[in-house]
Amino acid sequence: MSYLVSAQASFKDCLSTLKGSVIGKPDYGTDLPRLKHRPFNSEWVIDFRRCLKDACKHDPRLKFKSADIDSSRAGEGVISYKVYVDGFTVEGNVNV
Questions:
Q1: CA-to-CA distance for 70 and 80, rounded, in angstroms?
Q2: What is the pLDDT of residue 50?
């Protein structure tokens, strides 16, 4: 099977898409856009980890193994993440 986008691009698209906003794919996306309006605390981190895992569900190339979350810059409004999947890593930042 040939894909038009990279696995990393697929992950980032799913992560940033609000769950339920894609017609015909009500399960596609995550709740990350909703997290941006909540205060940052330990529950936020748990929900963010769930979003990272959910973003891997919709692409068979993405088999979630684990994730590292760096919240040391949360006061500046930035959370960094690194998601480990089979064969590669996906890294990025989220503004909170």
A1: 5
A2: 94
